[in-house]
Write a structure and sequence with these properties.
Elements lengths: L13 E2 L10 E11 L2 E11 L6 E8 L5 E9 L2 E4 L1 E4 H13 L4 E6 L4 E9 L4 E11 L1 E2 L5 E6 L25 E8 L5 E6 L5 E4 L11 H7 L4 E8 L7 E7 L6 E6 L11 E8 L9 E8 L7 H14 L9 E7 L3 E3 L7 E2 L2 H11 L10 H11 L6 E8 L6 H17 L3 E9 L5 H11 L3 E4 L7 H16 L4 E6 L2 E3 L37 E4 L10 E8 L1 E3 L3 E8 L3 E12 L4 H18 L5 H18 L6 E6 L5 E4 L20 H15 L9 H4 L15 E2 L12 E2 L10 H5 L5 H8 L10 H7 L13 H4 L7 H22 L4 H22 L4 H18 L5
Parallel strand pairs: 2-13, 18-33, 20-21, 20-24, 24-25, 25-26
Antiparallel strand pairs: 1-4, 2-3, 3-10, 4-9, 5-6, 5-10, 6-35, 7-34, 8-9, 8-34, 11-12, 12-17, 13-16, 14-17, 15-16, 18-19, 19-30, 21-22, 21-23, 27-32, 28-31, 29-30, 32-33, 36-37
Length: 872
């Protein structure tokens, strides 16, 4: 949501009283993307300032890729930070409204449309800063060019016709770094080719997937350079006016690929499942046959100028190169609030040079005006098409600013199904124009119509070669066969393996009886899912180019291959096998699979009229959303200061590592911090850490008893995470002097040994001990110092030792959180001391200010957390 365009954009935070963007300017937007092969993990962090003396309820919209799963949401307002939980939408609204009515601060995130979400902030304190962090994940899109991929980072929200609401105005000032975008790319041991930013002048660096190269000499860079890594960085003093778009090619990217993931950490009450993500690309060409080609060109007011001209050029280019088959025909429609054929009698005409020449001449007289109604336009086209033709391809060319997607999807599904019942093939393709094109709309239309999408950015509108390239990719998509998948064997034997269980989802599950439809929260009253939950279901067609298939399976792993049985036009049945790829325990692939299951249910919802079936469908969405912490049409993220969510209190001068945990750990004064620094670094310079400083470090910082049960939830560190885990504080009365007794609690030997090895004075850990305990059995031992730390400038030789010690402590913190979350009572004091050591070292040992130290800490901890998946 970082770009400021025309004054009609909905941008910034809005006061509910009058829905006006007053006194809440956006200060900065930070996009951090990590791409592993074709899996994307992203974090969007935005900071606002409440420049008002009045407490208010405010909201704002933001945009993510339409296929993405929102997996985490946190907000920090003033000195309060909270990690939200996922609840059924009505329950979340009730908790949010109850907190607001009681004058309690509250946070809520709702899904508005496929790619648009709304964050509501209740009872925002006057003159406070507002920082929101949203994490999301998705599989990367195809660019419809062979072995090419396209990454679009939505940096704003375009105006959408049909969306109720007030006119809006830019509210964000410019700054030294209004927008920061970083993208780290790591593909599976093959070369990255032709990496380009289509939208902005970004810095592109090959050989590294982070900024660690900045601190290396040319010789060191050459030694560590990897062909399969790249890093993109972009900073802007002003907010952007369009999406940020990257494209690159990878050899054999279009080959079938499958990653799988054992669930970790386990979810209470859930089976120990394995999730799969499979990508398939159709390389089968359709045999020539009579074909009706229909172009549906958006000529609404937003298409004026270069966009309408590009649309005309695309039509002309495609009509010059489509496959020729006797008795094939074509038609061209223009639409705004209604659609009308360009041809004299409104009907398709023979596809020959004479008719094409006449149609293009008429097309070039068009101008743009009016609103947009895509559903009305599609209805007209389908009703007037030549139903006698065995194939019909509708090519929609639009800037994608219509919110009437649901009705359009219903229309496409209705007509495509009717055509299939008659043995005919009706498909929909979309060419999206402009930086602010609604990819959610475009992808939804082709998902319903078994087609494909292609996009042209504003910066390429004048490039005729680019126009020709996109026209050809669309033609190739039309020519590719929509292969039908009959069966997928995922390489696992499902628990209790019911026959034909694969992909049935709810089909064989008993429906809840009336007693189950009572006051229980929706989603808590549905039967357990099938052993195999798959999306899409078998029997579904490939998209024209790249398709993604997912499964969550409760069962036993038996083979490292996935077997796909598919059918091509003509009834020919083939089988292919694809070996499983990455195997990293976690929650990411589960989140993607659950999002795909939800998408199937949400698409299904548009055609359900029976109240019972509607309830059952919504309940299943809620179950998936709550289980895997996903926002959806039926679930929302919510948190309140009244105890909903995971809360942390941050004192005004305390860094993330030294925060007050709901007032249970009062912070030390400045004098104690300086005593800590003086002792630590005067001795570190001589590589000695023998001073006794417990009273200095923790003077006035004894751990106070926590409030009575239920135990409070905390998030020890402010960091981006997917599927953020909650940790419970111990309920015993403990102080800093109890560290030894707490460390001796029962637990695994590695945890006890690690806590015992912590320096009681400084909170540091010997890197050799960390390597022996935390990274035992891992090739290479302790990883190289995180890029965020190693890139820091050194002032003397001892700083390198400080960096290694800081990195060792951060690895231990990640080890506590990721591998021993259930033992937080055992490591809480050790973790607190380690955080204190890290933040004090960064601030006073390496000379960082408080804000920068917190950023380095969070970035390094995120990197350390990634290594924990291999720790046993």
């Amino acid at each position: 949501m970082a770009y400021n365009g025309p004054t009609h954009r909905r941008q910034g935070i809005y006061w509910h009283g009058h829905w006006t963007p007053i006194e809440y300017p956006l200060l900065s937007s930070n996009y951090s993307y990590k791409v592993r092969d074709f899996v994307v993990e992203a974090t969007l962090t935005e900071t606002y300032q409440a420049q008002t003396n009045v407490e208010r309820n405010v909201s704002y919209l933001f945009e993510i890729p339409p296929e993405a799963s929102v997996t985490g949401f946190s907000a920090q307002i003033g000195d309060t930070r909270i990690e939200a939980i996922v609840d059924e939408k009505e329950e979340a609204n009730a908790k949010y409204e109850e907190a607001k009515a009681a004058g309690v601060q509250a946070w809520k995130l709702d899904k508005v449309q496929e790619e648009v979400f709304e964050i509501s902030l209740g009872n925002i304190a006057p003159n406070s800063s507002i920082m929101t962090r949203v994490t999301y994940a998705h599989l990367i899109s195809s660019d419809t060019i062979e072995d090419s991929v396209r990454l679009t980072i939505p940096c704003g929200l375009a105006p959408h016709a049909g969306r109720p609401g007030p006119a809006t105005y830019p509210t964000a000032p410019t700054g030294t770094a209004a927008v920061t975008i970083t993208v780290g790319i790591h593909v599976n041991s093959t070369r990255i080719l032709g990496l380009n930013c289509l939208s902005h002048q970004a810095t592109i660096n090959y050989g590294f997937s982070d900024n660690s190269f900045k601190s290396l000499s040319p010789a060191e860079m050459n030694k560590k350079f990897k062909d399969w890594k790249a890093y993109v960085e972009f900073k802007s003093k002003e907010f952007l006016r369009g999406n940020f778009v990257l494209v690159w090619a990878v050899q054999s990217m279009d080959a079938g690929r499958c990653v799988f993931e054992p669930l970790h950490p386990p979810i209470d009450g859930q089976a120990e499942t394995t999730a799969f993500a499979l990508t398939l690309v159709s390389n089968v060409m359709l045999d020539p046959e009579e074909h009706e080609y229909i172009f549906l060109v958006d000529r609404s007011g937003s298409m004026s100028g270069s966009r309408l001209q590009m649309a005309k050029d695309v039509v002309e280019m495609m009509l010059a190169n489509l496959p020729t088959k006797k008795r094939s025909s074509f038609n061209i429609y223009g639409f705004n609030t209604a659609a009308k054929s360009i041809l004299p009698n409104g009907r398709s005409v023979g596809y020959d040079k004479k008719n094409v020449f006449a149609a293009i001449n008429r097309l070039n007289t068009w101008d743009a005006w009016g609103g947009t109604d895509i559903n009305s336009a599609l209805t007209t086209v389908f009703n007037q098409r030549d139903a006698a033709k065995p194939r019909c391809s509708v090519v929609v060319i639009t800037d994608g600013l219509d919110w009437g997607v649901t009705a359009a999807m219903q229309t496409i599904q209705k007509h495509a199904t009717a055509a299939a019942e008659q043995g005919k093939l009706l498909r929909v393709f979309v060419m999206g124009l402009g930086d602010d094109v609604s990819r959610g709309m475009c992808e939804a239309l082709v998902r319903s119509g078994s087609g494909a999408t292609a996009y042209i950015s504003d910066s390429w509108m004048q490039d005729s070669d680019h126009c020709e390239l996109k026209a050809w990719t669309m033609i190739n998509s039309i020519n590719r066969a929509p292969i039908r998948v009959r069966f997928i064997g995922w390489g696992m034997t499902p628990a209790e393996s019911p026959p034909q269980a694969s992909g049935k989802n709810m089909a064989s599950r008993p429906r809840p009886d009336q007693s189950q439809l009572g006051p229980a929260a929706k989603g808590d009253n549905v039967p357990p899912p099938e052993a195999i939950q798959q999306a899409p279901l078998p029997g579904t067609m490939f998209w024209a180019v790249r398709s993604h298939w997912y499964a969550i399976i409760d069962g036993t792993y038996n083979t490292p291959k996935v077997k796909i049985e598919y059918e091509i036009p003509g009834g020919i049945i083939n089988t292919i096998e694809i070996r499983h790829g990455d195997n990293s325990p976690g929650r990411l692939v589960h989140s993607l699979a659950a999002r795909a299951l939800i998408q199937v249910l949400e698409d299904k919802a548009i055609s359900i009229t029976n109240a019972g079936q509607k309830y059952e469908n919504e309940a299943e969405i809620v179950r998936l959303g709550k289980t895997y912490s996903l926002a959806s049409t039926q679930t929302s993220f919510v948190a309140t200061m009244a105890g909903v969510g995971t809360q942390a209190k941050i004192t005004s001068n305390a860094p993330p590592g030294g925060r007050t945990r709901l007032s249970s750990v009062p912070q030390g004064d400045t004098a104690s911090d300086l005593n800590f620094v003086h002792a630590q670094f005067s001795v570190t310079a001589q590589m000695k850490l023998e001073m006794t400083m417990r009273n200095q470090v923790f003077r006035g910082e004894s751990l106070l008893p926590l409030p009575p049960s239920p135990p409070l939830k905390i998030t020890p560190l402010e960091m981006p995470r997917i599927g953020a885990m909650s940790l419970s504080l111990p309920l015993n009365d403990a102080s800093s002097s109890d560290a030894d007794s707490i460390a001796s609690n029962d637990g695994e030997d590695d945890l006890s040994d690690l806590i015992a090895a912590q320096d009681a004075t400084t909170g540091a850990f010997d890197p050799a001990v960390v390597e022996r305990i935390v990274f035992r059995g891992i090739a290479g031992g302790i990883p190289a110092v995180a890029a965020a730390i190693s890139a820091l400038e050194v002032r003397d030789d001892d700083d390198d030792d400080v960096k290694r010690q800081v990195w060792a402590a951060i690895c231990v913190i990640a080890f506590f959180e990721r591998r021993h979350a259930e033992d937080s009572g055992e490591w809480f004091v050790a973790n607190f001391k380690a955080e204190k050591f890290v933040m004090t070292s960064l601030r006073f040992g390496l000379g960082l200010d408080e804000g920068r130290a917190g950023e380095v800490f969070a970035e390094a901890l995120d990197e350390a957390g990634g290594f924990m998946v291999g720790v046993v």
